[in-house]
């Protein structure tokens, strides 16, 4: 719990520590700064943070909050840690759980824009309700718009819904979802990798998306603009080799342009009803043969229209070999998070590819 709550530790450092200590994490806080650096091969900054962990993390306060809330902490090394999350490239060091246990049967991630149309909200509600009536759980992020509708539809259908929070379990965000939050705590499951008291922010929402898609057997994008955060969830699904579906929506609706793009470039299979989705996921091949990301259709312009930050990222990639967000951002004076989101968007559009090293490069059609 301490390692999970300390800033900048991350799964890679945790994995290194766990392996070099032979799984005996209780020894960690007895080591000197020199041993942390040389024996565990940690940077001086990380070693200093671990050596003085009590200055960064109030364990007693966390334990009190967790007990009061009725939650539990499940570390990566526990036998009941979700197997699906262990398959992620960067799994959470641990997760906080409250409410009912995670569903054992089929589960679909239902995601979409916060600024959805009435039609998109209705579709999310109706699809989730029908899925629930057929014993399929839903997973979403308890955000405004599509997430809220998906959770509500599942509960209305008597099903199990899982809300993955981009904040601590005790933080209700957005505040207008307080009633839904309480209902899910009673009848569904709340999950977060963030410590109690952690507020929601733009970065935490992006981080939690991999858990939403990671826990699911398939991912449905109900409504999303091209630059929406749900497109990042779609990218996570493709990286995790999860079947990806999207509802085409009204061609005149700009809030669904991202869904149509995913369908047009072959990344997602179009779904127009819950029955069609149920029929598709009922076959084993729907789980084992997800649609792969393919380049954008030929009608897309060779030099797409870009915003100023996107153009800066594009030119940086065009001027050199594969680069990570950490390398691109300082070169063009852009925040790393914004740069990473642009790079992921390029991948979704088929304009760039992400290599095994984690670096990004323009697709061959543009290089």
Salient structural properties:
3 domains; single chain; alpha/beta; Arc Repressor Mutant, subunit A; 9-stranded mixed β-sheet; Rossmann fold; 367 residues
3D structure, described in words:
The longest helix has 16 residues. Strands 1-2-6-5-4-3-7-8-9 form a 9-stranded mixed β-sheet, sandwiched between helices. The protein has a two-stranded antiparallel ribbon with strand order 10-11. The protein is built from 17 helices and 11 strands. The protein folds into 3 domains: 57 residues; 182 residues, Rossmann fold; 55 residues, Winged helix-like DNA-binding domain superfamily/Winged helix DNA-binding domain (Arc Repressor Mutant, subunit A, Orthogonal Bundle), CATH 1.10.10.10. It is of the alpha/beta class and 367 residues long.
Please tally the helical runs, counting DSSP H or I stretches of 4 or more residues.
Answer: 17
> Per the principal axes of the C-alpha atoms, what is the gross shape?
globular
Per DSSP E runs of 2 or more residues, the count of β-strands stands at 11
Measured as a percent range, the helix fraction is 40-55%
Percent of residues in β-strands: 5-15%
Count of discrete domains: 3
Order of helices and strands: HHHHHEHEEHEHEHEHEHEHEHHHHHEE
* Strand numbers in spatial order across the main sheet: 1-2-6-5-4-3-7-8-9
CATH class of the largest domain: Alpha Beta
Q: What is the CATH topology of the largest domain?
A: Rossmann fold
Q: Major β-sheet, in short?
A: 9 strands, mixed
Q: Alpha-carbon distance between the termini?
A: 45 Å
| Radius of gyration over C-alpha positions, nearest whole angstrom | 21 Å
The CATH architecture category of the largest domain equals 3-Layer(aba) Sandwich
Question: Which structural class do you get from the secondary structure elements?
Answer: alpha/beta
């Amino acid at each position: 719990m301490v390692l999970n709550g300390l800033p900048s530790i991350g799964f890679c450092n945790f994995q290194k520590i766990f392996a070099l200590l032979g799984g005996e994490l209780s020894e960690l806080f007895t080591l000197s700064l020199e041993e942390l650096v040389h024996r565990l091969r940690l940077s001086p900054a990380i070693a200093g943070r671990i050596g003085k962990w009590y200055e960064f993390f109030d364990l007693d306060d966390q334990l009190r909050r967790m007990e009061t809330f009725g939650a539990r902490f499940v570390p990566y090394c526990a036998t009941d840690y979700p197997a699906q999350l262990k398959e992620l490239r960067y799994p959470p060091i641990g997760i906080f759980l409250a409410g009912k246990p995670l569903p054992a049967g089929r589960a679909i991630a239902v995601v979409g824009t916060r600024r959805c149309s009435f039609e998109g909200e209705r579709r999310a509600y109706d699809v989730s309700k029908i899925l629930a009536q057929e014993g399929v759980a839903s997973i979403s992020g308890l955000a405004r718009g599509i997430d809220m509708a998906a959770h509500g539809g599942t509960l209305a259908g008597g099903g199990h819904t899982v809300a993955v929070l981009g904040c601590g379990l005790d933080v209700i965000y957005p505040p207008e979802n307080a009633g839904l939050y309480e209902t899910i705590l009673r009848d569904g499951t709340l999950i977060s990798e963030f410590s109690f008291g952690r507020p929601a922010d733009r970065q935490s929402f992006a981080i939690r998306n991999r858990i939403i898609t990671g826990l699911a057997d398939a991912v449905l994008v109900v409504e999303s603009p091209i630059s929406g955060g749900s497109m990042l969830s779609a990218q996570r699904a493709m990286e995790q080799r999860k079947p990806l579906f999207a509802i085409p929506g009204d061609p005149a609706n700009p809030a669904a342009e991202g869904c149509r793009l995913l369908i047009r470039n072959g990344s997602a299979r179009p779904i127009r009803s819950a029955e069609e989705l149920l029929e598709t996921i009922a076959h084993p091949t729907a789980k084992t043969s997800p649609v792969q990301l393919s380049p954008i259709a030929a009608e897309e312009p060779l030099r797409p229209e870009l915003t100023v930050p996107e153009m800066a990222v594009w030119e940086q990639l065009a001027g050199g070999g594969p680069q990570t967000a950490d390398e691109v951002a300082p070169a063009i004076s852009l925040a790393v998070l914004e740069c990473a989101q642009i790079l992921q968007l390029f991948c979704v559009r088929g304009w760039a590819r992400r290599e095994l090293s984690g670096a990004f490069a323009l697709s061959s059609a543009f290089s």
